[in-house]
Design brief:
With about 200 residues, the protein is mainly α. The chain contains 7 helices and 4 strands; from the N terminus they run H-H-E-H-H-E-H-H-E-H-E.
Length: about 200
């Protein structure tokens, strides 16, 4: 599994640059009512990121904080952001490779449970992250420079595991990416003729 990048790398791959630019652009775009950022869509996937961001946050503290305490931390916000970013990497890469074809998100509880289990198993066993996803992840991690925020992650009376953090931040991006990959299906757009 990837760890935080140690230094800035020059990226010249045009696909990587395009994915990065589309994600950054989506941060400044809003839905038709101008109150909800398009970066935080689709909600059907991101709702699963919230519970996983809570779990990732809890894993870094001893003793383990309650869900309510974990969700009130800056670390939870960082994990939620990075998982959202992983979802966006998948969506932008899919759009480039498949030409913006329509998709739907599965809502079947059995499929969702199976997807979450598969993603968790893949991450715990370790996966090789291929380019351009790997390079886009590196750009995000370098831009984020999370180590400058380490002291803000401290919760009084709890020990923070900074070494585990170095592994979990890239894993959280991949969690979002893989979850989107598992839950998104190509939409059936066949024409239906009435009376047939």
């Amino acid at each position: 599994m990837k760890r935080l990048p140690s230094k800035e790398e020059h990226v010249s791959d045009p696909v990587v640059q395009r994915i990065w630019e589309e994600i950054v652009c989506s941060m400044d775009q809003y839905t038709h009512d101008s109150t909800f950022s398009k970066f935080y869509l689709p909600e059907n996937i991101l709702i699963h990121c919230r519970s996983s961001a809570t779990i990732f946050t809890q894993l870094l503290y001893r003793p383990i904080p309650s869900s309510e305490i974990a969700q009130g931390t800056r670390l939870y916000s960082l994990f939620y952001l990075s998982m959202t970013y992983g979802v966006q990497i998948f969506l932008k890469e899919r759009n480039i490779n498949k030409g913006h074809i329509p998709f739907e998100i599965t809502t079947n509880p059995h499929d969702i449970r199976a997807a979450r289990n598969m993603v968790g198993k893949s991450l715990s066993e370790g996966i090789k992250v291929k380019s351009p996803v790997s390079q886009v992840m590196d750009i995000f991690l370098i831009q984020l420079n999370a180590h400058q925020y380490m002291r803000k992650f401290i919760i009084r009376g709890r020990e923070f595991n900074s070494e585990k953090f170095d592994n979990l931040l890239p894993a959280s991006i991949m969690w979002g990416y893989l979850t989107a990959q598992e839950l998104i299906r190509e939409k059936n757009t066949e024409l239906r003729i009435e009376g047939s």
